[in-house]
Amino acid sequence: MKVLIIGSGGREHAIAWKLAQSDRIDRVFVAPGNGGTAGEAKCVNLPVSDEAALAAWARQEGIDLTVVGPEAPLAAGVVDRFRAAGLTIVGPDKNAARLEASKGFAKSFMEKYGVRAARSTTFTDHGAAVAYGAKHFARDNPPPLVIKADGLAAGKGVIIALSQREAEDALKAFMRESTLGEAGQTVVLEDYLAGREVSILAAVSSAPGKAGGAILPFVSARDHKRRFEGGQGPNTGGMGAIAPVPDFSPAAQEDFRRAILEPTLQGMEQEGMDYRGFIFFGLMVREDQCFLLEYNVRLGDPETQAVLPLLESDLGELCLSMLDGSLGSFSLRWKPGAVYAPVAVAGGYPGSYRKGDPITIDREVLAKTGARLFIAGASTGDAGDLYTAGGRVLALSAWGSDGDEAHARAYQAIEAVHFNGMAFRRDIGRE
Question: Cis before residue 73, ω within 30 degrees of 0?
Answer without folding.
Answer: no
